[in-house]
Amino acid sequence: MKKLIFSMLAVSVTATALADVVDPDSTGFKFTDVKLVKTTPVKDQNRSGTCWCFAGTSLLEDEILRKSGKEVDLSEMFTVRHCYSDKADRYIRMQGATNFAAGGSIIDVPYVFENYGIVPEEAYSGLQYGEEKHDHTELDGVLRSYVNSVKSTHGKKISTAWKKGYEGILDAYFGELPETFVYEGVTYTPQSFAKSLGLDMNDYVAITSFTHHPFYKPFVLEVADNWLWAPYMNVPMDEMKAIVDNAIDKGYSVEWAADVSEGGFKWYNGYAVLPKAKTTADMDGTELSRWVKLSDKDRESELFDIKGPVEEMTVTPEMRQEMFDRQETTDDHGMVIIGKAVDQEGNKYYKVKNSWDTNQLYDGYFYVSEPYFLAKTLSILVNKNAIPGDISKKIK
Asked: Is the model's pLDDT at 152 over the cut of 70?
């Protein structure tokens, strides 16, 4: 399928799009929520490629809410700041032969939580550069230029000052990292605050499903934003879906990394579907004579001119693998699955929380069809206690 072009993956919508509020009746879809997990409010990553952090942080907030009933607003930029720092270290050590970008993976938030701790939003907003909302356009350009300049030593030794200079840039944009802070009358360090939340990062499992590696064994998922080279547990496609279904049924939300560049991904209209392509075998008479005269562009436009529930692709593991191998399925965006729903024809969907503010049709949420999920999921992160027992035994 032809890809949509994003100037920056996982940014918020433009001002023009925000002005066009969609009437729910105009989409042709009527969704009914079947099961919802308690979740914290939708946030706005705005113009930053940090969807991975907003999704991962939301998952941890939901876990705190599930376990304690308490709503805690955690700082995304504390995690982002540490990842920027560690990415630069790895990039320089690898002489630039690894990824250095704003993006990240579903592993990154647990990684920072385990190694550096976490802080509440009120202790570290990361907005120290004259903006009310996150905008990393300038920052990303500055950091990229800096590390590329450092690595281009032309055979000379790298200075001992480069990291101090790099941290100075991060301090200027995000603010200095707090060594201690006061939250609800108690003084914490980032590490002691993390411990106070009652979460164990060993409880979270990264899961994917591809046939180019053995099932029930971990492998390093080959996407650029997996800069930690972290292992993901590989399970069959239907079991990946079963894990999500079981998690939602038991009250656990699920972090979801997926391709969002498909023509059927219409989040501004509140849904993502995977329409089945028309073929000449499906037509006769007037429709066939009209279809054969259409250009490829017009056929694609017609395929995604969606006015309600449509017949969708039947997704197989082989199809899913081919989409990944041919890079039709790419690692675009991180979100959180927080529920199940059906449309007016009984088709099943997952309700997804996004991080592109609340000024859309469903206030920052949208509905993803099961075929879209099966085809376009890169990976999920879930509490191991939400995995069905029979699958848990297989992955040990």
From this structure: yes
Predicted confidence (pLDDT) per residue in 222-271, tens digit: 999 999 999 999 999 999 999 999 999 999 999 999 999 999 999 889 99
Print the SS3 string covering the chain.
Answer: CCCCCCCCCCCCCCHHHHHCCCCHHHHCCCCEEEEECCCCCCCECCECCCHHHHHHHHHHHHHHHHHHCCCCCECHHHHHHHHHHHHHHHHHHCCCCCCCCCCCCCCHHHHHHHHHCCCEHHHCCCCCCCCCCCECHHHHHHHHHHHHHHHCCCCCCCCCCHHHHHHHHHHHHHCCCCCCEEECCEEECHHHHHHHCCCCHHHEEEEECCCCCCCCCEEECCCCCCCCCCEEEECCHHHHHHHHHHHHHCCCCEEEEECCCCCCEEHHHCEECCECCCCHHHCCHHHHHHHCCCCHHHHHHHHCCCCCCCCECCCCHHHHHHHHHCCCCCCCEEEEEEEEEECCCCCEEEEEECCECCCCCECCEEEEEHHHHHHHEEEEEEEHHHCCHHHHHHHC
User: What is the Cβ-side half-sphere exposure of residue 190, based on CA atoms within 13 angstroms?
Assistant: 20
More confident residue, 153 or 166: 166
User: Which of 25, 35, 37 is closest to 67 using CA atoms?
Assistant: 37
**pTM (two decimals):** 0.92
d(CA 297, CA 74): 45
Burial class from Cβ neighbours inside 10 Å (0-12, 13-18, 19+) for residue 393 reads exposed
For residues 116, 122, 126, 129, the Cα torsion angle rounded to the nearest 10 degrees is -150
Each residue's pLDDT tens digit, 44-85: 999 999 999 999 999 999 999 999 999 999 999 999 999 999
